Amino acid sequence: MNFLAHIYLSGNSDLMKIGNFMADGIHGKHFDTFPKEIQKGIILHRSIDTFTDAHPVFRQSTKRLHANYHHYSGIIVDIFYDHFLAKNWKNYSDERLEDYSERFYQSLRDNYKDLTPKTQKMMPYMIEYNWLLSYQTIEGIESVLAKMDTRMKHNSNMRFSVAELRTFYSNFETEFTTFFAALIVHSNQKIQTL
Questions:
Q1: How many angstroms separate the Cα of 54 from the Cα of each of 59, 85, 174?
Q2: C-beta of residue 5 within 8 angstroms of C-beta of residue 182
Q3: Of 1, 120, 128, 129, whose CB count within 10 A is highest?
Q4: Residue 111 main-chain phi, psi, to 5 deg
């Protein structure tokens, strides 16, 4: 899953959301210098990723992209799924996505000293371009994929995958809805153990 889903699946704890959000940049087991709630978010993030990568519905979505995008297929589907979460936000939250996003950005500002250097560097761009809200539109997703493409060492061509998103839109959306229901249950259960 991508940023919005990881944040959403963290429940109501701002620090757990932050840990879950920045966990991709934290490697190994040595993250005990972070506050406890951030540590929980990192552990939750890893559990979500493991569950996601093994889930048959997620794999069905990636299979549709594999011929053209190979090992980038999972990254692309993560972003597609964030689009469907943002687009259908009202099904998952009573709070407007605009307000939810702004509250998260404010928590990043409030906890700046606890962010990794990579997150500190990325944060102004995320806020300025309102990445979380931009996921609501296909154009926003296209922009995200294009930016990711330029950062990849090898030519991933991810920016072109919007063509498949448009072609198989209802398939991807149905798969997301089925998968995300299972992921919410998994995440809630994992939080109980942390």
A1: 7, 20, 18
A2: no
A3: 1
A4: -115, 30
pLDDT > 90: percent of the chain: 91
The whole-model pTM stands at 0.95
Tokens of 178: 């089925």
* Tokens 């972003």 belong to residue: 79
pLDDT at 25 over 90: no
Sign of the torsion angle spanned by Cα atoms 158, 163, 165, 168: negative
Cα separation values, 23 from 51, 55, 162, 172, Å: 15, 20, 26, 26
Provide the pLDDT for residue 194. 93
Cα(61)–Cα(179) distance, rounded to whole angstroms? Answer: 10
Please, where are the H alpha helices in the chain?
Answer: 3-8, 14-22, 36-54, 56-69, 73-87, 97-110, 117-128, 131-134, 138-151, 162-167, 169-193
Q: Among the listed ranges 29-33, 65-69, 83-87, 188-192, which one has the minimum average pLDDT value? A: 29-33
- Whose tokens are 């005990």? That residue is 32
